[in-house]
Automatic annotation (TrEMBL):
InterPro entries linked to this entry: PepSY-ass_TM
Keywords annotated in UniProt: Membrane, Transmembrane, Transmembrane helix
Organism: Bradyrhizobium macuxiense
Protein name per Swiss-Prot or TrEMBL: Peptidase
Residues annotated as transmembrane: 12-36, 144-165, 186-210, 335-356
């Protein structure tokens, strides 16, 4: 590779890394506890625990809805969801209005057998960490900004891979020149850890970027695919009386045999139209349990209006969300994700150290040059 080309790639790598350094450290540091958010919530007592009721059938979902509305009088239902990892728990989302802002929602967990409230969901210190990680408490602009940081991170990774060969081609793999200057040893460690974590960092960085586009993707789906699905209802007023959730659940399961309900969106919420319930169905394998299929049902009669697969861009989003936090393979994968996260923090920190050390070296050389009298 020509010296000029190397210099250009070096500038790209340096400045994309420097611009994103502070925010990448924030994302890595907050991402570490989020990998274990289920376990942390359980230890701190924020994870709802269902009562022991082995062998007893679950209550009709409409009774859970009635319990949720009784717990939050004056509010309306937005969503009801079923935890795939804890079938004994049903979560109910209430808000001031069907299209109320997510930050105004109250999420309560209920025992699926007794309808007993099990506490609020989405509270505690992990919620603060999650907000810092996803949007820095800045809403959608914060998400898009962090998405831009993720793209810079991807460019820094790619440029680092391009530079790896020219700078290490004369060294054996994993060589650490600890007898040389401290900066040289740090450079070797930076290159080694960087190349070991490169695939993981690129995958996590790009899935993080995709996650920041979630609201934009949902808006695209609503403007196109969902609009096509609800076209026969154009001009009709919203339902005067909503169908029972029990009937909605029964019809949705018949429309998607072999699948179970992940969550149901009430008419007027962001995931459906003003006329329809939307039941989002999932499969029973590690992959298909992440890929949802919407079933639209008439808000008054619960009759199935339409059902079709989500577009590819939303499927990519659904796959990227658990992949970003290592939620596919249980505790072993979470531990691997945590180790790689810590190694990435070391790469970012060592890169910042190398840049500062190089600046100090240049400053000393400049000072010496000015101190030497002209001959």
């Amino acid at each position: 590779m020509k010296a000029r080309t190397i210099r250009v790639w070096s500038l790209v790598h340096t400045w994309t890394s420097l611009i994103s350094t502070v925010f990448l450290l924030l994302l890595c540091l907050t991402g570490l506890p989020l990998i274990f958010h289920h376990e942390i919530d359980e230890v701190l007592g924020y994870a709802p625990q269902p009562e022991a009721a082995a062998g007893r059938p679950a209550l009709p979902p409409q009774q859970i809805v009635q319990a949720a509305l009784a717990a939050d009088p004056g509010r309306v239902m937005q969503y009801v969801s079923w935890d795939k990892d804890e079938p004994g728990i049903v979560m109910a989302f209430t808000n001031n209005a069907p299209d109320g802002k997510p930050d105004n929602a109250t999420v309560r967990a209920f025992d699926a057998v007794t309808a007993k409230p099990l506490g609020l969901v989405g509270v505690g210190p992990i919620l603060i960490v999650l907000k810092l990680h996803t949007d820095m408490f800045a809403g959608q602009p914060g998400k898009l900004f962090l998405g831009g940081i993720g793209l810079l991170f991807a460019v820094a990774i790619i440029s680092g891979v391009v530079l790896y060969w020219p700078f290490t081609r004369r060294l054996r793999f994993a060589t650490i020149r600890d007898r040389s200057a401290r900066r040289v040893a740090w450079l070797d460690w930076h290159n080694l850890i960087g190349v070991v974590t490169v695939v993981w960092a690129l995958v996590v960085g790009l899935t993080g970027v995709i996650n920041t586009w979630a609201e934009l993707m949902l808006s695209q789906w609503k403007a196109n695919e969902l609009a096509e699905m609800v076209k026969p209802y154009a001009g009709k007023p919203p339902p005067a009386k909503l169908a029972s959730l029990d009937q909605v659940v029964t019809e949705a399961k018949q429309a998607a045999p072999g699948m179970e309900i992940a969550f149901i969106a009430y008419p007027g919420t962001p995931f459906t139209s003003s006329h329809h319930y939307a039941a989002f169905m999932r499969g029973d394998t590690p992959l298909t349990s992440r890929l949802l299929k919407p079933v639209l049902l008439d808000g008054e009669t619960a009759e199935v209006s339409d059902t079709r697969a989500l577009p590819a861009y939303l499927q990519a989003l659904l796959i990227s969300q658990p992949l970003h936090f290592g939620d596919y393979g249980g505790m072993p994968l979470k531990i691997i994700w945590a180790v790689l996260d810590i190694l990435t923090i070391l790469v970012i920190g060592s890169g910042l150290y190398l840049w500062l050390a190089r600046r100090r070296k240049r400053a000393r050389a400049t000072a010496v040059a000015h101190a030497v009298p002209a001959q």
